[in-house]
Amino acid sequence: MVLDIPLPTRLGPFDRLQRAVERPGDLAEGATLLPPRVQAAMAAVADDARVPLERHRDLYSLRRDVTFLNHGSYGCVPKSVQAVRRVWMDLSEEEPIDFGAEIDTAVAWAEREVAQFVNADPRDVVFCANASTGTNIVLKSLNLGPADTILRISLAYPAVTSTIAHLVATTGVKSFELSIPLPTTKAAIVRRFEEYFRTSCATPTIAVFDHITSATGLVLPVAELVAICRTHGVLSLIDGAHAVGQVPVDLRAMDPDFYVSNCHKWLFAPRGCAFLYTKRQWHPRIFHVVTSYGLGKGYQAEGFWPGTFDPSCLLSAPAGIAFFRHVLGGSVARNHLLAVRTAKFLAAALEGTLLVDQWDAEAPHLIGTLATVLLPRLTPGSATADAVIRRVDPAAYAAGRTAPAMVFDTLHPASIDYPPATAGAGNADLTAADIAVALHDMLRTRYAIECWCNSVDGVPLLRISVQSYNQAHEYVALARAVAEITGIGGVDRGLIKEYLADSERLAAKL
């Protein structure tokens, strides 16, 4: 017996991954090269297309005793995609060393599938854990300093704002916040950017803005904003956390310098799956948050292995894409139209206001499948808010819960959740954010409705999500609950009847 060594010596996983990315033809039939059990689980995803729209909730693991109207926060993974991930996890446990050492080309295949979905060159796309990680990678790679300025928008995601604040404190880079007028229109947003560049004394180094704003669900005109940045020699970094799977994304046409998005929100991948797109000319400037074995081997290789982690969520991204393509179909358009109609219904039912001006004309451009309704009745300090807000002892609050318990209720004793009460405290200390949190919690604990509540410009708001498993009657239940909480009383029956009939016509049409 002798020791056989191939000639030439086999490449290591980081070199192989980079080579696989740069030679996409070698993985052109990547799906057929996957382990047979993965292929079988992937093929089963398409079977979900047989389930009619009214039974789409059966495709998920969501609790039946909770009305779930918050797909946008973390997404929901279909059972069939969970099954694909479970196969990958089983394979990793059956042979941990082989799995860790040989999954490089599988990751390259998965990255290629994601790149194709957003019409990008696979060589420019790399996986990361989430959009916040991708944003940190970009902003902390550019060696920004006192001579640089970061332009951000007033509706930015808080984690992005925090990242920029940290860089301001540690590097001396300057930051300027561009206020987005509310209510707004597509033209008003573009005009605001144009005015800034026309009147500003200093040109920023990089502009950071959302594709779809998280708290308010507004779809920004990113193609126009990128073009404005390019005209002025400013780098563009788009936070597309909510975009992929909610609205079409074409990165070749958009042509930003950097784009980050989650695959686990609206593209049905398991949580912890996101990607960073970097225009080719900037690859040498990008360094991943964790420096690992791939250093110096290429853009994908450097981001491939940050240390021991579970890559099954990344490897399952193509299954999420398959579910989107095979199962969602026409319901993407239905979800959008239902979101537009529902926001208008809720605003009418709850004496609310909308963030889109000229709603009927502008909503098709500025709304995807997230929509926001402001609740002026709950504005801190208003007579209507003071009339319905009651401060209660935490024990009494807990005793008033009537909805099914949340999973982690037992891990939240009052001694941890609440600081000592201030004697004589009334409503004066309450912010819009405090009221929004309380509204969210009351909807969940008293009405078994999960709907995200936030605030903007000092006014609490409801942010609804619409996914194929949601039905119009669920938003009627939300309207009735909020009307009761806010002192409106009931919701006009004629308004409900008109909304439900309109929703039925929409479903029949699509």
Can you tell me about this structure?
This protein is α/β, with parallel strands linked by helices and 510 residues long. Helices cover 44% and strands 11% of the residues. The chain contains 22 helices and 13 strands. The chain has helices at residues 13-22, 36-45, 71-74, 79-94, 96-102, 104-117, 131-141, 158-171, 186-199, 222-231, 251-254, 299-304, 312-315, 317-328, 331-349, 359-366, 383-388, 394-399, 414-417, 432-447, 472-485, 493-509; strands spanning 67-68, 125-128, 149-153, 174-178, 206-210, 235-239, 258-262, 274-278, 353-354, 370-374, 449-450, 452-456, 459-465. The strands form three sheets. A seven-stranded mixed β-sheet has the order 2-8-7-6-5-3-4, sandwiched between helices. A four-stranded antiparallel β-sheet has the order 9-10-13-12. β6 (235-239), α11 (251-254) and β7 (258-262) form a beta-alpha-beta unit. α2 runs antiparallel to α4 (79-94), α15 (331-349) runs parallel beside α21 (472-485) and α15 packs antiparallel against α22. The N and C termini lie far apart (68 Å).
Ordered list of secondary-structure elements with their pairings:
Elements: H1 13-22, H2 36-45, E1 67-68, H3 71-74, H4 79-94, H5 96-102, H6 104-117, E2 125-128, H7 131-141, E3 149-153, H8 158-171, E4 174-178, H9 186-199, E5 206-210, H10 222-231, E6 235-239, H11 251-254, E7 258-262, E8 274-278, H12 299-304, H13 312-315, H14 317-328, H15 331-349, E9 353-354, H16 359-366, E10 370-374, H17 383-388, H18 394-399, H19 414-417, H20 432-447, E11 449-450, E12 452-456, E13 459-465, H21 472-485, H22 493-509
Parallel strand pairs: 1-11, 3-4, 3-5, 5-6, 6-7
Antiparallel strand pairs: 2-8, 7-8, 9-10, 10-13, 12-13
Helix pairs in contact: 1-6, 2-4, 4-5, 7-8, 15-21, 15-22
